Amino acid sequence: MRGILSLFVGLACLSGAAHAQTKRPLDHTVYDMWNRIVDQQLSDNGRWISYALDPQDGDAELHVRSVRGSDSFAVPRGREARFTQDARWIVFLVKPELALTREAKKAEKKPDQQPKDSLGILNLATGDVTKVERVKSFAVPEEGSGFVAYLLEPESKPDKQDEPTEEKEEPRTEEEPGAEDEEKKKKEKKDGTTLALRNLTTGSETRFDKVTHYAFSKSGARLAYIVS
C-alpha cells in the first residue's frame, strides 16, 4: 500500500514539474494584453452598470450590463460614459483608433487634422447607438433627464500651399512696458466652437455658436454657456 501511495506521489510531482516547464514565463511582452477596469459606475435606479476594459496597449471597450436581466452591450473604444438620471440612455465618448492616432502623429499632421473623439448615445431599451463626429466634450444634467449638451471640435482647415511672398521690413516702434505680454495673450485666446443641445427622445437639436464653456443647472432646467 505504501509503495502504491509513493508511486502516485511521485507521478504527481513529475506531472507538476512537467506542467511548470510548459508554462510561458511572464515578461514585458505579455503586459500589453492585460486589461484594467476603468470608468465603472452604477445607474441611479441601480439597474445598470457600466465599465471600460482598458488594455495596456490598444483600444478600450465600453461594457454596459443589466443588473437584473441578461441585456448587455459592448461599444468599441467607448470611454467616460454617463447614465441619464432615468437610466434610459447612456452617453459616452468614442475614442479614435489608437493606430490612426499614432499614424497621424507620425505624419506630423496639424492638431485640427488629427483624429478626434466622437459622441455616442446608447438607447438602453433598444440598443440603438447614435454617433456624432468630432466632439470635444459633453454633459448631462445631474438630476434631470432627456437632454445632452455637447461641444464640437473646430472645423478642420485644409492645408495651404506655401507660396513665396515678398517680405517687407516694417518700421520698428518702441513698445510700452507690458505690450509684448498683452500681444501674447491675444494670440493665445481661442474662439469658441458650436454647442449643441440635443433632445434625447426626439433627436432635435438647438445650436449655439462660439461657445467656450457650458454647464447644466443641477435640475437640468437651464443651460448656461460662455461665448467668445
Beta content comes to 35-45%
Mean pLDDT: 81
Span from first to last CA?
90 Å
Dominant shape: flat
Classify the helix fraction into a percent range.
10-25%
> What is the topology, as strand order, of the major beta sheet?
9-10-11-12-13
H/E series, N to C?
HHEEEEEEHEEEEHEEE
Number of strands: 13
Please compute the radius of gyration using only Cα atoms: 27 Å
**What is the count of helical runs?**
4
Largest sheet: 5 strands, antiparallel
The computed structural class is alpha+beta
**What low-confidence regions span 5 or more consecutive residues with pLDDT below 50?**
4-15
Question: What does this protein structure show overall?
Answer:
The longest helix is centred in the first third of the chain and has 21 residues, at 2-22. This protein has 228 residues and is α+β, with helices and mostly antiparallel strands. The radius of gyration is 27 Å and the shape is flat. Strand 1 (35-42) and strand 2 form a beta hairpin. It is built from 4 helices and 13 strands. The strands form 3 sheets. It has a 5-stranded antiparallel β-sheet with strand order 9-10-11-12-13, with no helix packed on it. The chain has a 4-stranded antiparallel β-sheet with strand order 1-2-3-4, with no helix packed on it. A 4-stranded antiparallel β-sheet has the order 5-6-7-8, with no helix packed on it.
Any chance you could write out the topology, listing elements then pairs?
Layout (H helix, E strand, L loop, with lengths): L1 H21 L5 H4 L3 E8 L5 E8 L5 E6 L5 E5 L1 E6 L5 E6 L3 H9 L11 E6 L5 E4 L2 E5 L7 E6 L26 H10 L4 E7 L5 E12 L6 E5 L1
Antiparallel strand pairs: 1-2, 2-3, 3-4, 5-6, 6-7, 7-8, 9-10, 10-11, 11-12, 12-13
